[in-house]
Specification:
The chain is mostly helical. The protein contains eight helices and no strands.
C-alpha cells in the first residue's frame, strides 16, 4: 500500500503540471493553477503515509539532525511522506511560477522547459525562474528610465 501511495502522490499532481506546460493559456488551466486546492489530494496522501509513522516524524522535525532524518527515511512510510510533501510543495512553487510568468508576460515556450526542470529539480527551476524574473524586472526598469529621460542619457 505504501508503494501505491508513493506513486499516487505524483500522479495526483501530474495533471496540473501537464496543463501548465502544454495548455498554459487555456482558461481552465489559469483557474486550476490559480487554486491552492490542487495540493489537497497530495496532502491527503501525505497524511495517509505520515500518520502511521508520526512518532518518528515528530522526533525528526522536533529535533532535526541527519541521523534522525536518515532513520525516518529508512521507514517506507517516512520516505513516502517526505516524498508526498515534496510533491505538494513543488506543485505550489510551480503554480506560483506559472502565475508570475503570465503576469510578467514571460513566454510559455520558455516556461514549459523551466516548469519541467522544476518538476524534476525544483530548487534549480525556482532559482532559474527567480533569476529570469529579476533580469526581466531590471530590464523593464531600465527601459522605463530611458523612456522618461531619467536614465542619465544626455
Amino acid at each position: 500500500m505504501t508503494g501505491f501511495l508513493f506513486e499516487l502522490s505524483f500522479w495526483l499532481a501530474a495533471p496540473v503540471w501537464l496543463l501548465m506546460i502544454f495548455a498554459p493559456g487555456w482558461g481552465p488551466t489559469v483557474r486550476i493553477a490559480g487554486s491552492p486546492w490542487t495540493v489537497v489530494p497530495v496532502l491527503m496522501v501525505y497524511l495517509a503515509l505520515a500518520v502511521p509513522v508520526f512518532p518518528e516524524l515528530w522526533v525528526a522535525v522536533r529535533s532535526p539532525d541527519l541521523d534522525t532524518f536518515r532513520d525516518l527515511t529508512a521507514l517506507a512510510g517516512g520516505a513516502g511522506a517526505i516524498w508526498a510533501q515534496v510533491i505538494a510543495w513543488d506543485l505550489l512553487i510551480g503554480q506560483w511560477m506559472y502565475r508570475e510568468a503570465r503576469r510578467l508576460g514571460i513566454s510559455a515556450l520558455l516556461m514549459g522547459p523551466l516548469l519541467v526542470l522544476t518538476i524534476l529539480l525544483s530548487p534549480f527551476g525556482l532559482l532559474l525562474f527567480l533569476g529570469l524574473r529579476a533580469a526581466r524586472s531590471w530590464h523593464a526598469t531600465r527601459e522605463d528610465l530611458a523612456a522618461t529621460g531619467a536614465g542619465g542619457a544626455t
